[in-house]
Amino acid sequence: DSQSSMYFADWIADQLPEFIGNVQEDLIVTTTIDPEMQEQADKAIAEVMDKEADAVKASQAALVSMTPDGAVCAMVGGRSYGKSQFNRAVQSQRQPGSSFKLFVYLAGLEAGFTPATLVEDAPITVPIVGGVWQPKNYTGEYLGQITLKEAVTHSINTVSVRVALEAGLDNVINVAHRLGIHSDIEEVPSIALGSTEVSLLELTTAYDHLAAEGAIVSPYG
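and the corresponding structure tokens:
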């Protein structure tokens, strides 16, 4: 709705005290928000929710858009600020699913994998506390020997798990934290498929490191 920029305004207001202390007079605060992009963000949320909300039983959505240096240009924290001021872009934590594989494959590259490395896409059984875990591919199909590049392209679950285990779960977590994930991440195999919970702002910041060609990025408004 037309009030959606208030999610961004609240986010900024919460940060002001640490920047300026206890100021009593009126202030003019210059921000990074782009009104045109904010309008486009509103439309994007409305379109996605109209098309897909019922099918996936979703009642809310959020969006963050930022430049490669971390400037937040648009932020939508929910379908209606008037009905709910809870900012799902910043305050809510959700399982990122396959988008968490970014950290798995970066840890794999640091461990010596290359895009041409051959990996096995096949059923896998992983010992866990209390039993075993048998992750499956979304399609239910397996391709056998494929390159890491192919595994990334097709978001193959079994390969992500194998890479995470070989690179080391602790290294996957380390990569995630280095790229701006501040939430706690439990060292369990299922993080290879995004079982941990993060905020949308954290995840967007992490991906922004790619747009910034590896430079350190911190979100700001």
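(Above: one complete record from the training split.) The mean pLDDT is 96.
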